[in-house]
């Protein structure tokens, strides 16, 4: 731009850094930010927000916090968007204590937390298995005149489900309409998963079947959780029934769907069905992975079908070599080729 006698200004840099943020190019965003003082352009809170968001999307929580700490030196005042991005960065980085610390610092900075801030903090607690803290945050929101949304509830449901508090997870799901918050696919999937983890396959199926009643169509995540619940509960017939019903609901099974169904067949001693499922995966555009092969191999081994098991080991080895070769070729290829 200087060669064309056009001098970049704050708006130019903000637009460029925002473009890097949207493209998850956090390195370029930081380079642009570092070049601003040389161009005698002072970064604003908009500039910092875009750079912090770029770091958040790129999984760079340390850099996001560093940028936040540098803002006062640049005479930029962090706002709600700044704290939301930084809290989300901590959440994605598994730093739940730092996420909660940012939330606690907001009132001192005269910044009011929003449902986005609380949702990120609750999600951070969910990732860390801190279900009590997740519930505490949810209960504190009304006092802060912040209304929980479906993301907040989904994270809290997930947090409860992961540690065996499936009754609490279902209780939260039932309370959502009272708060005029409607569960979405993520909320239901989290609730179904909470049932899956602790052998409550009947409840998992009940939740899945109730989704259309609230005008919520199950997606592959919902089905995967329900199939896994049947797997854990030793109900291979139901697992296969759910897998086949996905097509009627216009939901495409993925590798996880087949993994759960294969595991159910393996546990139920259904080696022939396991082999049939494995062979059908490519037709469904699902590439078998190591977990899929191991489940089928285990099913054959338990049934004394050692020759078939050896054949599967050979097929798995060949498939892994093909994958490694493709990755090697892809990484060595240049854009011009």
Question: What does it look like?
Answer:
Among the domains are: 21-69 and 79-135; 217-326. The chain contains 18 helices and no strands. The chain has helices spanning 10-22, 26-35, 45-57, 61-70, 80-92, 96-105, 115-128, 131-140, 150-162, 166-175, 185-197, 201-210, 220-232, 236-248, 255-267, 271-280, 290-302, 306-332. The protein is globular. The model has no long low-confidence stretch (mean pLDDT 90).
Helix content: 55-70%
Overall average residue pLDDT = 90
Tell me the total number of β-strands: 0
Structural class: mainly alpha
* Morphology: globular
- Low-pLDDT runs of 5+ residues are none
Rg value: 25 Å
Describe the biggest sheet? Answer: none
Tally of alpha and pi helices: 18
- Cα(first) to Cα(last) distance is 30 Å
Following the backbone from N to C, one meets helices and strands in this order, namely: HHHHHHHHHHHHHHHHHH
Provide the β-strand percentage band. Answer: under 5%
Organism: Polarella glacialis (Dinoflagellate)
Keywords: Repeat
Protein name: Pentatricopeptide repeat-containing protein, chloroplastic
InterPro entries: PPR_rpt (IPR002885), TPR-like_helical_dom_sf (IPR011990)
List the helices and strands and how they pair.
Elements: H1 10-22, H2 26-35, H3 45-57, H4 61-70, H5 80-92, H6 96-105, H7 115-128, H8 131-140, H9 150-162, H10 166-175, H11 185-197, H12 201-210, H13 220-232, H14 236-248, H15 255-267, H16 271-280, H17 290-302, H18 306-332
Helix pairs in contact: 1-2, 1-3, 2-3, 3-4, 3-5, 4-5, 5-6, 5-7, 6-7, 7-8, 7-9, 8-9, 9-10, 9-11, 10-11, 11-12, 11-13, 12-13, 13-14, 13-15, 14-15, 15-16, 15-17, 16-17, 17-18
């Amino acid at each position: 731009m200087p060669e064309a006698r056009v001098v970049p200004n704050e708006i130019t840099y903000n637009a460029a850094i925002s473009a890097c943020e949207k493209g998850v190019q956090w390195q370029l965003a930081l380079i642009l930010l570092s070049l601003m003082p040389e161009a005698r352009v002072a970064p604003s809170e908009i500039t910092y927000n875009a750079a912090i968001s770029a770091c958040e999307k790129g999984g760079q929580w340390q850099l996001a916090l560093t940028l936040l700490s540098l803002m006062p030196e640049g005479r930029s005042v962090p706002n709600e968007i700044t704290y939301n991005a930084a809290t989300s960065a901590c959440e994605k980085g598994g730093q739940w204590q730092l996420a909660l610390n940012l939330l606690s610092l907001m009132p001192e900075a005269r910044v009011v937390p929003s449902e986005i801030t609380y949702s990120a903090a609750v999600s951070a607690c969910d990732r860390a298995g801190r279900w009590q803290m997740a519930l505490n945050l949810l209960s504190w929101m009304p006092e802060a005149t912040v209304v929980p949304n479906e993301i907040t509830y989904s994270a809290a449901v997930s947090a409860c489900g992961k540690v065996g508090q499936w009754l609490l997870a279902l209780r939260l799901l039932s309370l959502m309409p009272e708060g005029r918050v409607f569960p979405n696919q993520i909320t239901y999937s989290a609730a179904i998963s909470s049932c899956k983890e602790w052998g409550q396959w009947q409840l998992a199926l009940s939740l899945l079947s109730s989704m259309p009643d609230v005008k919520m169509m199950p997606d592959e995540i919902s089905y995967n959780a329900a199939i896994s619940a049947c797997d854990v509960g030793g109900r291979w017939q139901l697992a296969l029934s759910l897998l086949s019903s996905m097509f009627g609901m216009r939901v495409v099974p993925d590798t996880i769907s087949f993994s759960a169904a294969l595991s159910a067949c393996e546990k139920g001693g259904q080696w022939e069905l396991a082999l049939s499922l494995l062979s059908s995966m490519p037709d469904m555009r699902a590439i078998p992975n190591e977990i899929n092969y191991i489940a089928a191999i285990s099913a054959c081994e338990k049934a004394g079908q050692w020759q078939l098991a050896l054949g599967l080991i050979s097929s798995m080895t060949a498939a892994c070599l093909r994958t490694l070769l493709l990755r090697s070729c892809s990484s060595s290829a240049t854009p011009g080729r």
